[in-house]
Amino acid sequence: MPLRPLPRHFGWLTPAIAVLALALGFATFQFSEERGIDALIERGRQRLDLYEASLEREIDKYAFFPATLGLERDVVDLLLNGGPDRAAAINHYLEQLNQRAGSLSIYVLDATGHVIATSNWNQPDSFLGEDLTYRAYFGDAIAGRNGRFFGIGTTKGEPGYYLSSPILIDGRPNGVAVVKVSLEQLEQSWTTVEAPVFVADENGVVILASVPSWKFTAVRPLDDRSRGELARSLHYNARPLPPLGLLPERVMPRRRAELVDLQRPRDEVAQVFPVSGRFLAQTEPLSGNGWTLTVLSPYGDVASMAWTQAALAGLGGAFLAILAVALNQRRSRIHERLRAREALQRAHDELELKVEERTRTLKAAQDELVHAGKLAVIGQMSAGLAHELNQPLAALQTLSDNTVKFLERGLMQDATSNLALIGELVAHMGTLTSQLKSFARKSSGTPRPVPVGRAIDNALLMLDRRLTGGRVTPDISVEPAGIAALADANRLEQILVNLIANALDALDGSVEPRLAVSAVKSGDRVQIVVADNGPGLTVDARARLFEPFFTTKDSGGGLGLGLAISAGIARDFGGSLAAIDSESGGAAFVLDLAAAQLTEA
Known about the structure:
Elements: H1 13-60, H2 65-69, H3 73-81, H4 84-101, E1 105-110, E2 115-118, H5 136-142, E3 147-152, E4 159-169, E5 172-181, H6 184-190, E6 197-200, E7 206-209, H7 224-232, E8 246-252, E9 257-262, E10 277-285, E11 292-298, H8 300-409, H9 412-440, E12 448-451, H10 452-462, H11 464-469, E13 475-479, E14 484-487, H12 489-507, E15 515-522, E16 525-532, H13 539-543, H14 562-572, E17 576-581, E18 587-596
Parallel strand pairs: 13-15
Antiparallel strand pairs: 1-2, 1-5, 3-4, 4-5, 6-7, 6-11, 8-9, 9-10, 10-11, 12-14, 14-18, 15-16, 16-18, 17-18
């Protein structure tokens, strides 16, 4: 039923609902954004710990190498005494050690900063003789400290991490041992991470990054003085060090994070920055070297989720408000709907009663129609049955008269023989009459196990005179013997009588008439097939075969109810009746019924 229109004093309702939706949306956005940021920060902390541990583990693998070289007696001997033979032996030793360790290079410097032995002694870009006093790691080591330095090599332009240790002789630094290692394998493992990550050195220059194009960019602006010093020291081998492009938007000191915008540059280097947008930046200092580790967690999903939840909250609030108004209106119409429902229920109950009554009437009419079909079959067989009974009756009359005469003459053996013949004739007539009586009786219709072979034999017995008159010898096959179907015995025999009678009609006039009745059990089903080699069925006849009052016989040959009644009986038993082409060229009817298990008496 349509809702009643809102009264005029409800004119304030629309703006009130709009204000409610906006308020709910704003509050939900704030709450959802804060929750999303908290979750993002927690995941970022976990990533920071993981990346820091992996970086320290990668560096610590080589941390002991420089100090170990200072303990080698041959290295100390080279620093004290020199000589080409000693230098050649150390070169070979450093070459083998570098190959086993997987480092980029290992070399030894004297107190003046010149390379006196190196693992790449036999390569065109060998370090032998180079003056490396300008490198910070040499200054740290010659002063007695371990040196840590990330830079780009001036010989090959290959970036790497340098670890140096002083070589002490009599307690004083007399040389420096250096190992250069590559961190590219670690970087490659970072390229598959969900959130971008980079490491900046003490100068604010990105030296490691999950995005390759971020390397050797400046996290913070570099003034001219700083750029000049870095250029003179060849720290980054004259790299331009463009800005990374991180613009802070919102600082969160309590959470140790900030919201930043990574802008895509508009100049010619724009193509080398594949990642841009808003991120939640979390930075952690790395101990011992002045480096910082930064994780950029994408903020877009948090904002999208917050806006989505805000919109849903606003729409939900507006919907609830509108629903409340609608329920208020609905309440005023409940009584009318209940009365209408009661009236509809009464009409429905009356209709159910009428349907049930008509169903009973239809069932009774169907039963009467089935019984009428039986009586029609009996009427068609009456002439044959009369002939079957008249012959035994005439024989009985003759045999009884002769028996009296034999008794009068004392011919006991002949009289006994006649009496035996009279008994056989009486038994045959009893079989005919009892079969006819059983077929004509109304069946209960309750399905029960029925022996299929017995039903076929009874149906053939009812039509025995037609079979004999038409010179038809049926081919009977029941596999396996003793199978049973779930049906009613009388109704199953009626179906078989109808099918066999129709087959005999089709065989009328055939030179070599053939009739086959077979039964096969397949799984939990039984198929009974009645086939002939008659003219078969046309396409039009097959389409209308089971329609009531449709017949292919000449006028007066039948009412066209036999197959319709048989198909209805099969459906009552949960089965089906269908017509197919016979292998012998005629027609075949397949009766499909549920299989049953015979119970022993």
